[in-house]
Amino acid sequence: MSHLLLMPVLLPLLAGALLLLWPGLGLALQRVIGVIASLSLVVVGLQLLALAASGDYHLYALGNWAPPFGIVLVLDRLSALMLVLTAVLAAFCLLYACQGTDRLGMNFHALFQFQLLGVNGALLTGDLFNLFVFFEILLLASYALLLHGGSRARSRAGLHYVIINLVGSAVFVLALATLYGVAGTLNMADLALKVAAAPVSDRPLYLAAGVLLLVVFGIKAAILPLLFWLPRAYTAASAPVAALFAIMTKVGIYAILRVFWLVFGTGDDPLQVELLAWVWPLALATLLLGGLGALGSLSLRTLTAYLVILSVGILLATLTLASPQALAAALFYLVHSTLMTAVFFLMADLIGRQRDQGYDRFHVQAGMNNRWLMAGLFFVAAISMAGLPPFSGFISKVWILHSVYSLEQGFWLWAVILFAGLLVLVALSRGGSAWFWSSPACEKQRPLNPVELLLVVVLLSASGLLSLNAEPVMGWMLLTAEQLMEPGAYLQAHPKVAELLPGGVWK
Amino acid sequence: MGLFWIPLLPLLGTVVPLLSSRFGRSFLALFTAIPPLLALLLLLQLAPSVFNGEVIYQSFDWIPLAGLSLTFRLDGLALLFALLILGIGLLVILYARYYLSAKDNMGLFYAYLILFMTAMLGIVLSGNLIQLWLFWELTSISSFLLISFWSHKSEARKGARMALTITGAGGLALLAGLLLVGKIVGSFDLSVVLASGDLLRQHAAYPVVLVLVLLGAFTKSAQFPFHFWLPHAMAAPTPVSAYLHSATMVKAGIFLMARFYPVLAGTELWFLIVSMTGLITLLLGAYVALFKHDLKGLLAYSTISHLGLITLLLGMNTQLSTVAAVFHIINHAIFKASLFMAAGIIDHESGTRDMRRLNGLWKYMPHTATLAMVAAASMAGVPLLNGFLSKEMFFAETLDQVTLGSLSWMVPVLATLGAVFSVAYSARFIHDVFFNGEPVDLPKTPHEPPRYMKVPVEILVALCLLLGIFPGVIVGPLLALASTSVLGGELPYYSLSIWHGFNLPLLMSFLAMLGGLIIYHNRRHLFRFQSQFPEPDAKLIFEWLVQRLVRLCSAIIDKLENGSLQRYVFLLLLAALVLMAGPMIDLNATLGHQSSMPVDTVSLIGALLLAAGAIATVILNRRRLVSLLTLSVVGLIVSLAFARFSAPDLALTQLSVEVVTMILLLLALFFLPQSTPKESNPRRLVRDLSLAGLIGGVIGTINYAMITRPLDSISGFFLENSKTGGGGTNVVNVILVDFRGMDTFGEVAVLGIAALGIFKLIVHMRLYMPSTDGNGLPWSPDRHPMMLAIVSQSLLPLALLVSVYIFLRGHNQPGGGFIAGLITSVAIIQQYIAHGVDWIKERLRINYQWMVASGLLIAGLTGIGSWFFGRPFLTSWFDYFSLPWVGKFELASAMVFDLGVYLTVVGATLLILANLGKLTTSHSPAAKENN
Question: TM spans, by residue (chain A) (predicted)?
């Protein structure tokens, strides 16, 4: 039997454990192990993408116990897409970190792998409690990575981050307990059947669990008013870590998609509608806050952090409109915004280190080495981020606006997206001109690491590539959206309890 | 050769100047000109078929899913604009060769310029709305780069930012408008859209579409009230002003209105918005232009005024006015480009553009002066020049319109007034610069420019004359062609002759001439009058507004994201509570059908203790050590509750977790203040207590509802299959290591990662060790009491034995790797407490990180082991064996997995505790001092 489906979880787990095995392991060897594991994840991800392309669901029953009794990993188009995105992003971040960031503290490589373990597990699992476990892995690994390099700001931001998320974990457990207490199962497919067939008297309890999950995923995804941990955490983290965190809010959104569209999205009168009614206004407010924050930011990293918030707002607002077109457009935007966020965090570091002082702060005037090269980089990245042509930002914005027009709420989304877009445009042009135009001559020659530059440029050109190959990508997104909106097939891919062999052994 | 080459050639051409910088400036300019020249030839080759009435059309699929395709479409209007863009563009390339100094990066300049040319060609040749918008934004971006080309100048930077913001905002409105058009029509294809005029005009969303599209057009074409960015864009090098800000980019807005004329015009609303905006802009621009002392400032406001004129013509909704608009587009582009170039020459050769200092240049540069004077005369509308013809048509049209009812007479009067000022500022341009005495204090002595710098101006001025004298021959067919495509059908009758006899428009022209000269002659009075008004600097106001906005945003963000963890957690819980309110209100029947167990004394006492412990923790929370003790009561009762309700495994786990946690907290407390200062004001106390109470109430209610409902869960399966499928009778343990082994694996990984994180956090931490406790009493000198040392040392083997026992029996009896691991940890920690870190370090040479890693690896490899039997990860195996003396016993793969769990738990716990303990001992500064 093929164990490919397990690889995104097993590879980082073993690599992480291996990296810890010899506490005195040299950095060079650590890098080799980490990079090999990370690149293998890209290969595995692509293979899984090919596997998922058939449109079937692929299941991997851990311990050979059939769902709903055992834990099952489920691959569909959405999870495959997210796995590839994570793997590609991680590869870039890790290679960037290998240029020196990993030297700033201990066990960077092991923690990096554990972070991937958490993300990949959360993307693959078909069991709600298992999702909780992977969320914990993700949380603690990210906490440790956030602290990497050590500083007052990092410790403080890390403390806020971990405490808020631990409160979130408590809420998660409450939600799970409620669900198990009413439904008696936590396998997502099984739970979906139970929720769909719930008697009227049980519906409020399911809904209560649902809103608690919304809070949990809302913390991860960074929805207003649960997002205040984000700006400082993302700003304090070292560049490759912040870039990797670009996927973290997306994992929260992925969980919302998975749980609200599957568990609460089946049946004639799904609870999803009531849950998403909450998401819509909050998402719009989040979007607006992101725009305001971007304009009010004093450094490029803070600005990027607010752009993350803005992207979360756009994504969730678009998602809630729940048409396949809108969903697909949102997924396209998800890929674009993840990559661009990473580009921005890495670029902030790259440019910041070329400056005489002030790092990435806008109001500090300082000389800059390689000024025009940096300016060109910033210019192209800013165009893509602001959604101007011809990069992927433009395509995704047009597609989102295009796909939500016919919907009632579309008007509001249009207004807010376009207004926030203008704020971002102003913010980026102000920031860029403060840096590149009015800077004094630089005092000291600073070397520019060509590998770092190359990594940022390649990652940035992914935005152009995404725009050039938009059609096939969009096709994939549409099929993904359709698959997501037809949860019936997901349920059918799971075995019926009655059909299992005695003892719950499966196949 | 295909149509798409026309924009593609310049696009490819953007790299030419970047690559050919090393060949010297002349060759650089020459090479740069080649791609646009080829594009122009190609255009001319395609022109005949367009004149035959064809619409050349070429389309490539790009992203059909989003309605995007690359479609190029050449009709009369597009042909006219493309000719202007390429023709004037080539002249500007030649001109810029001499204008730019050796210090400027010429290659970069040309690259930007050609990029801009591509963008403009893209706009006018687009056959798809979204594609049109794409190129539209590209013009904003490239013009941003061009305006800010001299980025060391503050006004260039601010001007560029302002232009980008205004046109960018307009661009977003336009995008919304175009998307709406696409949705209403059902296609983004221009040909389809142009055929759907009635559909659009009758649609309920027509006003919205119109306003959005016009916002795009007005911002781009600097129409009131968005006109203020254009004068500040004059900070750009003059070739840019000549090209972008007179001939082409600002005409993009006009082009947009002309392009959508067949589908959006013809309504009352169109007339009102477009013609009134145009009229205001016309008057405002003409009036302000007169007072500008800067040559380029004068030309900029004159441009605004002429753009207003064209807008007014387009707004009038008659066929003839539209023809006049198209005609004036051509004329204005020609004379204004030449005027800007002349202004650039003057600036270049005399060092200033200030008309108060530039006087009497006729003597120094008669050739240039002649050219500039002809162009300015054309701008003023002097007969025999092209400006005169379109102005005549304009006057005639203002007389014909009746839409304003009884106030219609005002339009021709105001139009004449505008023309009066137009004549006045043209006169000023001529008289002030070339005559009017001697130059005042010029930075350099003016002289004629290089020969070839004048060539572009000569060509344009020649065109002014040719067009003015032989309009029918030179421009007639092109005008007819372009007007046909704007009107989308029949052309009205019009005459392009110079002489129409004595009529009202001629009188208006005459009045304008006369009035203009009178005003110019008496300008001193007017200047004095105008000087009473403060002159607002749009740049300052704009910057101030943006800065206000930025500060406002900063303030909002600071207010919201204020760094208070208490606030964030409050918001989190509040959100949970608000979201829960709905379902809680809907929950009518809290009580389920499950019958409840009778309440017995033991449970009741336990529950009361639990509540008391919790409440005491809250009340005593500021005395940390005490509240820790009361908290441990809660933990203890929970363990007892597990035991009471038949969950011995949970009880054991909870108990050992409780012990380890307490040690950890005590260690942490050692470094922290012993009491929490009183920080909350009463209001906040009430707020927090209410929130906590409400949350507790809601959770309690849910719990009650849940446990009173009959549960049909999957746990029955676990009970049935634990022995047969998992090989153990302790169902809890089988669930942990088998049914849900992955969860356990994950959770021990969490423990390990947490340990690594804490280790990372404290490894370099050096904490001051207080020499006294919280009450000021010194610590006991006996840091490792002998009693404790001996007792704990002798307990160690026993404790380890217990943990082995607990571990081994785990599969069938309460116990298992997790609990055993905790017990081992506690036993070792006990040694640390009793003997100190250094003592242990000598005796126990185990690296805990290694232990965590090997535990994880053992568990992982056990899971992989099942692959060799063709089973998924973590599939368990067990069998029964018998050996002499030992008897029958069971071997299970789950035991190995559990060993991994055990090692990870021990490793992780000790990694945390031992390292926390280290902070207090030899590494702390206080201890060093003692040594």
Answer: 6-25, 32-54, 74-97, 104-123, 129-147, 159-186, 206-229, 241-263, 275-296, 303-322, 328-351, 372-391, 411-429, 450-470
Residue B645: inside a domain, yes or no?
Answer: no
Helix (H) or strand (E) holding A59: strand A58-61
Q: A254 with A342, same domain?
A: no
Shared domain for B282 and B372, answered yes or no, is yes
Same-domain check for residues B298 and B252: no
Q: What is the pLDDT of residue B597?
A: 79
Alpha carbons within 13 angstroms on the beta-carbon side of residue B152 total 4
CA angle A208, A214, A219 (to 5 degrees): 135
Closest approach of A184 to chain B, Cα-based (Å): 4
> Is A504 part of a structural domain of the chain?
no
For chains A and B, count residue pairs whose Cβ atoms are closer than 8 Å: 342
Residues B117 and B140 in one domain: yes
Measured CA to CA, the distance from residue B836 to residue B923 in angstroms comes to 12
Distance separating alpha carbons of residues B349 and B418, to the nearest angstrom: 32
Dist CA A87 CA A85 (whole Å): 6
Statement to judge: residues B905 and B868 lie in one domain = yes
pTM: 0.89
Where does B153-248 have alpha helices with state H?
A: 154-185, 190-194, 197-202, 206-220, 229-232, 238-242
Does the structure's ipTM exceed the value 0.90? Answer: yes
B264, B283, B307: which is the final residue of a domain? B264
Helix, strand, or coil (residue B881): strand
Beta carbons within 8 Å of B202's beta carbon, 6+ residues apart: none
pLDDT tens figures, B596-646 = 778 889 889 999 999 999 999 999 988 889 999 999 999 999 999 999 888
How much is the pLDDT for B923?
41
- The answer as to whether B584 is a domain residue is no
Indicate if B456 and B314 belong to the same structural domain.
yes
Residue B762's domain comprises: 732-925
- CB crowding B369-387: b at 16 or more within 10 Å, else e: bebbbbbbbbbbbbbebbb
Does any CB of chain A come closer than 8 Å to the CB of residue B67? yes
Looking at beta carbons, which residues of chain A come within 8 Å of B565?
159-160, 163-164
Phi, psi angle pair for B710, to nearest 5° = -65, 140
Report if residue B723 sits inside a domain. Answer: no
Backbone angles phi, psi at B805, to 5 degrees: -60, -50
> Which residues have CB under 8 Å from A123's CB, separation 6+?
A8, A79, A82, A83, A86, A251, A254
Residue where a domain stops, chosen among B244, B264, B284: B264
The helix (run of H) or strand (run of E) holding residue B880 is strand B878-883
Same domain, A307 and A162: no
Calpha distance B796→A429 (Å, rounded): 67
Chain B stretch 457-476, residues whose beta carbon is closer than 8 A to a beta carbon of chain A: none
Q: Note down the domain range covering A391.
A: 278-468
Helices (H), A151-202: 152-183, 188-196
- Here the tokens at position B166 are 């205004």
Is B593's pLDDT higher than 80?
Answer: no
Choose, out of B562, B702, B745, B849, the residue to mutate when testing the contact with A (most A CBs < 10 Å).
B702
pLDDT tens digits for range A249-297: 999 999 999 999 999 998 888 888 889 999 999 999 999 999 999 999 9
* Shortest CA gap A78–chain B (Å): 19
Q: Tokens 């809250």 — which residue? A: B618
Q: Which pLDDT score is estimated for B924?
A: 42
B913, B663 contact by CB (below 8 A):
yes
How large is the C-alpha radius of gyration of chain A? 22
Q: Is the dihedral of CA A459, A465, A470, A473 positive or negative?
A: negative
Q: Would you say residue B756 lies in a domain? A: yes
A91 plus A237 within the same structural domain: yes
Q: Which residues of B touch A235 (CB under 8 A)?
A: none
Which of A230, A245, A276 is the last residue before a domain boundary? A276
